[in-house]
């Protein structure tokens, strides 16, 4: 058969007419060619020769009689359909009947026409042939286009899609390299198992991309955008998308169609390419960049004002000098600079971090690059060196690290502070089991509530990064009562507050501080310890009648892990937690001898 891509509306139509009456076949051929100049009619007088002619190819339509010796028209049709299911086949018979017509339809005849007595039958036959061939060619051409599209899509380095213009952009059709690009199958996107705008597009880019697309649609133009995606493996990749709207007759957006390509590699090189294109445009006017132009051998061709501002040399002292010998580089980094220049001269893009002397005794930390500039032959003609001052950024990172270490320490202290209420819970529940006294359960519940408070305090602190947050004026008597109920000291112990002192503090932090102080006293001073808390002129004092703390240990008492009690880390972690809370409030704490008792006194200065 002639392939559809080689035919058109003016292409010849090759017709095979099979009829056992040679004169009629010849006459029919003459009339058909007269009716349509595109027709080229060939004739055969029996179905078997006709079948061989069809298998030979280059036939666009078959016109066949029914009653013929050897093989009738229906049998001829059935034989043709075994090798070609679509070529137009018109049964043109002089002895028509409903039975023949029914068999023709069952055998997939294209048309059925009964011979007549006048020439108008050839006009009708010509129309039937032309319509059948054009329909056949249109179907074949559509299939060819579809195959070409499938081939094109399967070879495209990206995704072809059709989606709804709704939040999330639900996909109706997805083809191409979907899984290699984002790790999800086309089926997952088409069924809604994975939603492109909610599961694939990076969360930080979703609102921006939606706004860009809607703005383009409102302006009646195609949209084009660049954004990040998160693959099924949680990898971040860059995509470029171009698409357009499909509208109804009323002008409403029915769907979006477009193409998505992976530009991750090009995006990574984007800044370098942009700089390459702009290397001679305002390169020296950026006050945030230290910039120099070098010869391929590393000789300084020029530097900008920002670079000069970070050295005590002037331009004339630097131009023409080997770059590693300029004042920005220390003796320890010269070898690295020489290597970076050599790499750039060979065509490599080099990124670096270094410390530069500013000429006034200070140093700045920078991140920068050596970028080769090539001519049309690919030879490096210039090396552009640029650097950005990241001293503040580095300091912020160091500060963040210190803060994280501070929070780690806080977490360790809070973990220690959990021990008292947990011990209370265990002890009271054990007493409840042994005695049946439910009042112990009530005390245990109070301790459990304190555990929950500590947990919430830990979460808030880790989220905010602040050990001490909201402060309020707190009556000390109420807090001390809560603390005593939580740590559940021995019955012989006495904890009292002198007067009605109050303090402005973070309630949770203050409670933890008192829990550690009272717990420390009961641990080191015995079951009958006496504790007094009150005000002095600069803040609060806390004292007990325990063994006290030797003056030589008073500087170490707040160090994590330090303990005067052999085999116990109680004072070490507990008092370290006290020091942390005091520091978080910007207070001061001193260790002295108790004023009215024989033990130790802690003075917490809050003014």
For the biggest β-sheet, the strand order reads 2-1-3-4-5
N- to C-terminal distance: 102 Å
Helix content: 40-55%
Number of strands: 22
CATH topology description of the largest domain = Heat Shock Protein 90
What is the domain tally? 4
The CATH class of the largest domain is: Alpha Beta
Overall mean pLDDT: 82
Radius of gyration: 46 Å
Spans of at least 5 consecutive residues whose pLDDT stays below 50 are 1-6, 567-572
What does this structure look like?
- This protein has 607 residues and is an alpha+beta fold.
- Helix 1 packs across helix 5, helix 2 (47-55) runs parallel beside helix 3 and helix 15 packs antiparallel against helix 17 (439-464).
- The protein has 4 domains: 4-151, 3-Layer(aba) Sandwich (Rossmann fold); 156-268, PAS domain (Beta-Lactamase), CATH 3.30.450.20; 271-382, PAS domain (Beta-Lactamase, 2-Layer Sandwich), CATH 3.30.450.20; 399-605, Histidine kinase-like ATPase, C-terminal domain (Heat Shock Protein 90).
- The strands form 5 sheets. It has a 5-stranded parallel β-sheet with strand order 2-1-3-4-5, sandwiched between helices. It has a 5-stranded antiparallel β-sheet with strand order 7-6-10-9-8.
- Strand 11 (289-294) and strand 12 form a beta hairpin.
- It is 42% helix and 24% strand.
- It contains 20 helices and 22 strands.
